[in-house]
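lol forgot to send this yesterday, sorry. struct tokens for the thing we talked abt
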């Protein structure tokens, strides 16, 4: 593995710097409202990867004085009971953000869960109202991973206007909101997916390539425009020499030679995703309090 190179976008360092700014906002909130912002995290079942993600989120919240509530529910909980739990949190005065860790067991419709979280507490930014606002170019709560990618990109390029960006992967949590964010930045965006023809011809023209497909080391040097910026969202678990290893969608060692900048996996987009969740929690806290204030005037 290549270390400490100026070609590598250090997501951990960027996340730490960003969290210092978020902490300041947490303090402002506490000074105004005499309590910290509060994030409720629901986890259904015992998926080991989900448990690790939730643990990381709660640890980061604690680090910057955001209060967190972890709600562990059995994997056979009915959808109706899960929705009731969410509704309780929707109405709880002291809960500012609600996150339901995905994926959910197959008998639960993720869409119903997302739609039940009030948009005001939707710190994942997945609710159709938040997503709709993002697509309209309005201020909204933006999904954490694309927001983190944008933050990393803006650290590298102050003005993204006119850049030719290709995103590979069109999921609702990464690809589509990423496209909306970059259009707002005046980029020219191509959104590719599994049915895209001649993918390589498209990616080779990209000044910035963002990959979110979940295929280990799929993007080789043949897909890359020399001197481009690569954001690797993929997190893939592989076994190498009988050891578990995390790799991205991009064949890092090979692509690294060609590019201007690249995010590593791990230590790239992942830490920024969690930092943006903290940002969204504080943002949701302020938005709700300001709404309460406005409504109290009439
Ligand atoms: P999804 O499975 O929901 O979406 C994958 C997308 O990639 C789909 O749009 C699919 O196309 C497309 N795709 C799959 N194979 C190909 C291919 N060979 N060529 C072109 N497009 C392809 O995944 P997610 O968006 O949820 O996640 C993607 C990756 O990002 C995963 O590895 C996940 O672990 C990681 N991730 C990382 C996060 C982080 O914080 N770093 C956060 C969230 C996700 P189609 O729509 O046609 O099926």
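and heres what i got for the seq, position by position
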């Amino acid at each position: 593995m290549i270390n400490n190179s100026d070609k590598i976008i250090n997501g951990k360092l960027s996340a730490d710097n960003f969290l210092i700014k978020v902490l300041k906002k947490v303090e402002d909130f506490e000074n105004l409202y005499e309590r910290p912002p509060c994030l409720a995290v629901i986890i259904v079942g015992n998926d080991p990867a989900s448990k690790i993600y939730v643990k990381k989120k709660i640890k980061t919240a604690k680090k910057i004085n955001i209060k967190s509530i972890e709600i562990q529910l059995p994997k056979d909980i009915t959808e109706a009971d899960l929705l009731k739990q969410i509704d309780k949190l929707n109405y709880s005065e002291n809960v500012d953000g609600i996150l339901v860790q995905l994926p959910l067991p197959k008998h639960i419709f993720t869409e119903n869960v997302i739609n039940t979280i009030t948009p005001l507490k939707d710190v994942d930014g997945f609710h159709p109202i938040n997503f709709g606002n993002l697509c309209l170019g309005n201020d909204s709560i933006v999904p954490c991973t694309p927001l983190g990618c944008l933050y990393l990109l803006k650290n590298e390029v102050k003005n993204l206007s006119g850049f030719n960006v290709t995103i590979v992967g069109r999921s609702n949590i990464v690809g589509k909101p990423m496209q909306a964010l970059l259009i707002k930045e005046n980029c020219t965006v191509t959104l590719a997916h599994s049915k895209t023809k001649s993918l390589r011809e498209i990616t080779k023209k990209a000044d910035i390539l963002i990959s979110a497909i979940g295929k280990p080391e799929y993007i080789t040097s043949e897909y890359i425009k020399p001197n481009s910026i690569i954001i690797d969202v993929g997190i893939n678990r592989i076994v190498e020499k009988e050891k578990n290893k995390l790799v991205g969608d991009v064949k890092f060692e090979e692509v690294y030679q060609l590019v201007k900048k690249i995010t590593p996996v791990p230590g790239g987009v992942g830490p920024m995703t969690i930092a943006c969740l903290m940002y969204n929690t504080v943002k949701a806290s302020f938005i709700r309090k300001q709404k309460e204030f406005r409504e109290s005037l009439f």
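The CA atoms of residues 104 and 110 lie 7 Å apart. anyway ping me if u want another try
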